[in-house]
Amino acid sequence: MNSIPVKTLEISHGLDLLKLLPEANSLASLAWIRGGDGVIGIGEFDRFEVGGGSSSANDQDRFDQMRAWWHAKLAKFIVADDLHLSGTGPIAFISASFDPAEKSVLVIPKIIIGQRNGKSWLTWVGDIPKPEVVEYPKPEAPLNLSWAGGALEPHAWEGIVAQAVKRIASGELDKVVLARDLIAYSDLPFDARHIMLKLAEKYSATWIFNIDGLVGATPELLLRLNKGLVTSRVLAGTIQRTGDDERDLALAGSLARSSKDLEEHKYAVQSVSQSLMPFCSSTNIPESPFVLHLANVMHLATDVTGVISDSLTPADLFALVGALHPSAAVCGTPREVAKKVISDLEGMSRGRYAGPAGWIDSRGEGELGIALRCAQINPNNQKQIRLFAGCGIVAGSDPKKEFAESQAKLLPIREALESY
Fold first, then answer.
1. Backbone torsions φ then ψ of 235, nearest 5 degrees
2. Are strands 221-226 and 366-370 parallel, antiparallel or unpaired?
3. What are the pLDDT digits (tens) for 153-174?
4. What distances in angstroms separate CA 79 from CA 113, 114, 132, 206, one per listed residue?
5. Where do the DSSP E strands lie in 199-267?
6. Three-state SS at 342
7. Residue from 92, 140, 131, 163 nearest 366 by CA
């Protein structure tokens, strides 16, 4: 077996990670950053794809296949890492589809630059010279941006929301999440770096990401696994901000008291906590949510935590995500019924929207968010990009209000594309 060297060195702190991504095809840049900390990947050492015609997989099977591939790669690496921190050494970026039948990807970058808790590091894979860490010129904004409709026109999307409410009222299910899309075009190829820089300016509390051309700013952490502690931030229940601080404070109070939004949130928290419990010796679930304030919307939020059970083979990131996805926050409850209703009504392919996105290290630890507030650059025509938004539908949902909420959720990417 040919061994492959992987080296990690500590470097100067205080880096602006997004400015370190080179002027290259947007699909070659990888990023997972929040508040200036995180990891970026430059170039591609290797990749694994599952679903989407390369092979078939169910929810757990595809993550098992990813684990097997990742462990086979790790077995060939000879790692020199003096830091031994979460994210040092080799890592793989993950972006899984919502539906296991569609393509999910696992990408090992050639070069990794990371930053967290006052430490910064450089990792490179393969027998190559130590890479230089340099800032690159500002990326170009879209040129002559234009918009087109998505899979459904607004009135048609409101119609499927109304159908979902009827199915909920009949007792078929408690909640379902329905998504919609929007297409944009540019005379220049869309550059994920431009989108991420604009998102980071306004949405620093979110996780800014780009994995294989899926770029966005998600407020929802599906799971973080670090030293045996698992954390999941659940968001469900949303209200749009007005920009008036006093008015927004009153709206936050109404959101915290809204029976419709509290019901939607309860289902999402139950979905996550029930999925985590089999892997944990203990869990902590707060009695009531807090209101998370973002630049465009406010969400009901709950941080669920758990201690992974001590066993000969404790759960890794792949095991946990296989159990958690899709949560009620992006699918509904009961899960299998909600998946069928989505298939019946939604009328589009979600691709990797609403799927897990993030990274895993050689210890099986890492961070995965839910790919929300995001858009997919078309790999076959990089002058086209597809935006996504979804809303949780429960018995008290109003189709017109849900459409307005979806518009608010599209705003981060729309603003990023329209900014110069």
1. -120, 125
2. antiparallel
3. 999 999 999 999 999 999 999 9
4. 16, 16, 20, 31
5. 207-211, 214-218, 221-226, 229-240
6. helix
7. 92
**CA proximity to 40, closest of 197, 190, 188, 189:** 197
| Nearest C-alpha neighbor of 310 from the set 284, 282, 285 | 282
- pLDDT for position 26: 52
What single-letter amino acid sits at 15? L
Q: How does pLDDT run across 208-239, given as a tens digit for each residue?
A: 999 999 999 999 999 999 999 999 999 988 99
**CATH number of the domain at 4-129+144-418, please?**
3.60.120.10
Distance CA(39)–CA(123), nearest Å, equals 10
Provide the 8-state DSSP code for 18.
G
Condensed to tens digits (0 to 9), the pLDDT of residues 185-210 reads 999 999 999 999 999 999 999 999 99
Distance CA 278, CA 146 (A): 48
pLDDT tens-digit map of 285-322: 999 999 999 888 899 999 999 999 987 678 899 999 99
List the one residue out of 240, 203, 198, 202 whose CA is nearest residue 218.
Answer: 203
Structure tokens at 235: 């968001």
The label of the residue with tokens 């941006």 reads: 145
Report if pTM > 0.85: yes
Domain boundary assignment for the chain: 4-129+144-418
